[in-house]
Amino acid sequence: MLRLVVDLNRCQGYAQCAFLAPDVFAMHGDEGLLYDPEAEDAQRARVAQAVAACPVQAILVDELDMAAAQGAGEASHA
Amino acid sequence: MKHGILTDILDYSNRANPYPLYEELRKTPVFHDGDGPYVISTYFDIQSLLHDPRLSSDARNLAATAGDPLAESGEEGAAALPPSFLKLDPPEHDRLRRMTNRPFGPPHSPHRIDGMRDDLRGIVTGLIDNLGDPGRIDLVDQFSYPFPVTMICRLLGVPREDEARFHVWADTLAASLDPDPDSDPTERDKTTHDARMELGMYLAGLIEERRKDPKDDMLSQLAVAHGEDGSMSTMELLSTAALLLIAGHETTVNLITNGMLTLLRHPDVLRQLRETPGLAVPLVEELLRFEPPVQLLPQRTPLVDIEVRGVTIPKGSSMWLILASGNRDPHRFEDPDRFDPYRKDIQHLGLGSGIHSCFGAPLARLEAQLALSELARRLENPQLIEDPPPYRQNAVLRGPRHLYVTCDGIRS
Amino acid sequence: MPDGALEHLKREGRIVVVGASLAGLRAAETLRDKGFAGSLTMIGDEPYEPYDRPPLSKQVLLGRAGAERTALPRRREIDAEWRLGVPAAGLDMAARRVKLADGDEVPYDRLLIATGVRARPWPNEAEAELEGVFVLRTRDDGAALARRLDAGPRRVLVVGAGFTGSEIASACRERGLEVTVAERGDAPLVGALGGVVGAVAAELQRENGVDLRTGIMVTALEGDATGRVRAAHFSDGTTLECDVVVVSLGAQRNTEWLSGSGLGAGPRGIACDAGCRAFDIRGIVTDDIFVAGDVARSPHPLFGYQFLSLEHWGNAVSQAETAAHNMLSESTDRRPHIWVPAFWSTQFGVNIKSVGVPPMGTEIMITQGSRAERRFTGVYGYQGRVIGAVTFDNCRWLQFYQQQIEATAPFPPPFPTVDRRPEGQKALPADFPDPSLPTHGPTITLSGYSPADRRMTFTPAGH
């Protein structure tokens, strides 16, 4: 489990998170964002991609152990 | 003293390292010389201007381009097609971009890119398997070039049997953006023109086919779309497909090649990437800051006189926003000339910002992340044969023309 | 500090935070970040660790996330003693003690009050008790309402068309539920964004199948024999059958516990200075009690030093950080809280964002896009300057207008923009309702000027 919150004042709807982790982040209309505030562990690598890709750095993730996420990175590509 | 700095930036002999020139340029944050463009080079100014509704991306709002050496460069043959959304303002820009996005990404196609991860991996694996003699690899011709073209073929839905033809046209068009100064311009233009015509005819035929028998690919979905924004005309569709091809190709080639070059210059990071493939994720962001594939945006113009840092930029002036310079602005980034994928703060301008921010960004990210982590993993002890490598002519879409690498072998 | 008191505080002082939600949590994290090594106590009336509220009216009602799964991510370990599920019941300023409802007393050297707001309940208590009548503010509220929507009610009545009410209606429609919205004002969102934009919000609701009734009040809720709500009566004499009623009449500040404490706290919140220090009832600023979040009201230099109460997520975060910084700083190192108000809402598939203080605006100009297309930027003007802006699906331009507000740029904007339409050629009256009449959902409340201002009245708690 991975707790997260998006600062939607910062968010400008670039949708990188919704492209890269579509089961956690979803666009609601062209610009609005809805997300699952508690992502499954299986989504860890994709969430890490979303966090890094956010052009306005609006996604805050709890205890995002980058090392763990990186370890899972390989699996997500497979 | 500053005379000629723009000429220096465009001068091929400075292609391998334009960053000291940008540093010089930042001393005059709004640089203007004679009838040349107004050049913006600091992070915060660029960031603001990319969100400034008084700026147009539509060349029809330019008063004069005589003094702008980058005005409409290499675009002559495109005049037959309507401008793509890259060169339009809202509402036309928004409408075309939304329509193009409909079969590409969220909210309507949220799984399109995520669903291509296996395709990406397959293509990368195949290309690395076929690198041949590990003693001398050209990472550009053998890897960075073919990879994104194949991806675009898959995305658009070009049949596998036609991919080879598509590669030839893409290569020719890419070369036209990057003309060899020694070649005969008439001959060059003819080759480009022919490739453009053939590609256009091919795509028009494919669009026709997909209209009758739509599949799940992007071209079919674009061809049959009839959402709230209506449908795209065939000409608009051709223009959009051409944009996806050129913009999606050129930039990704440079991102991957610049990435490998940077890694080969930072062997520690290369080793860390090999050990921890997930490092590719922040690494690609740092790369977009450190060596962005699009160095500058040469096509903005104010709709009214605007003031930037006390300098009035008259209505209709041509403006350049030097993204690569903003990314190295010490007022924004600590130790900006250091490549550091562990940087906590990498809010770069590498993919632009605002309404024109890179359309293909998520795909470019996945392509580069996978390409770099796989090359790092599979190339055994890779070394640069030539540093700096030979660069392409283009100062805007900047990157090596070849990247010769030698390694001890290729891991499976 | 010459006598080392500040170092002593940082090393072994006692800081108490009353209010364990967004502002309280971010303040606690900031305190630890700034090197506070003493004891930290977090007091919260709800039994849950800090959670995020905005999803409750969106993801949670849409069934995309559980209400119990909205806990806020932590920026860092805060090593606090948590007193959750026990509301604060009183404050002894002289003895520096917070009294808890269970009789405990917690001593402090520095106190941060971030008790926020609660949903304004339906005024008739018996009707409010009917089964099927809800408010939406807490995690429990969200869970209960989501469960009820899951059961497929025949018709939902939303009372009040502020942002929360409108988002609830949007979620209901997206779930295919029949929904009626009753709003006392002339349009949804009118208190926050004025009549010009409210008219767009009204069309949006109607297009999406909401039975929107404006200029009307719900006069009574009626239950059946088993105590379930079955109908609502309106001020125009009509009756509506409904099996769920969501009362969305705005918020009340949680300040009753400070009654008689001597702190300048009342129904409009707790007055504090730009450095987040609370005023006492005499209008004298305290030096050990700080305020942050929805419960605070503080003066803002960009808006004529009006005391602003902001029910904004971003304000809670920013003010908490400033308050925490100032709690551990010498007076010359303190920072003012000068965050420019900003908020967002997503409803009926449209992303609405705003900066500045639109309700101060007397005029509005649609500088980009078109209201008919539901994609536009509206700029609010006040006394010849830009005071606020709103976007509907146009948010990438918003930072430009924020800069205009910060620079007190002239209104109407004297320049052309991309996407300027015929409707954007001239300014229109912004059409805000009379501010002396309460509305259902302004997210910014202008509550007078400095303590010396005649319009400012301290209202003793227990009104």
Automatic annotation (TrEMBL), chain B:
Q: Which SUPFAM superfamilies match?
A: Cytochrome P450
The UniProt entry, under InterPro entries, shows: Cyt_P450 (IPR001128), Cyt_P450_B (IPR002397), Cyt_P450_sf (IPR036396)
Pfam families (alphabetical)? p450
Q: Which PANTHER family match?
A: CYTOCHROME P450 YJIB-RELATED, P450, PUTATIVE (EUROFUNG)-RELATED
Family membership noted in the UniProt record = Belongs to the cytochrome P450 family.
This chain belongs to the protein called: Cytochrome P450
From TrEMBL, chain C:
Pfam families this protein is in? Pyr_redox_2, Reductase_C
- Domain (Reductase C-terminal): give its ranges: 343-412
Question: Per its Swiss-Prot or TrEMBL entry, what cofactor is needed?
Answer: FAD
Annotated InterPro entries:
FAD-oxidoreductase/Apoptosis (IPR050446), FAD/NAD-bd_sf (IPR036188), FAD/NAD-binding_dom (IPR023753), FAD/NAD-linked_Rdtase_dimer_sf (IPR016156), Reductase_C (IPR028202)
Q: Where is this region: Disordered?
A: 418-442
Quick check: keyword Repressor in the entry?
A: no
- In its keyword annotation, does this UniProt entry include Amino-acid biosynthesis? no
Q: Which domain of life is it from?
A: Bacteria
Outline the extent of the FAD/NAD(P)-binding domain. 14-320
Keywords of the record, alphabetical order, are: FAD, Flavoprotein, Oxidoreductase
Matches recorded under PANTHER family: APOPTOSIS-INDUCING FACTOR 1 (PTHR43557), RIESKE DOMAIN-CONTAINING PROTEIN-RELATED (PTHR43557:SF2)
Q: What is this protein called?
A: FAD-dependent oxidoreductase
**Which species expresses this protein natively?**
Streptomyces goshikiensis
Organism phylogeny: Bacteria, Bacillati, Actinomycetota, Actinomycetes, Kitasatosporales
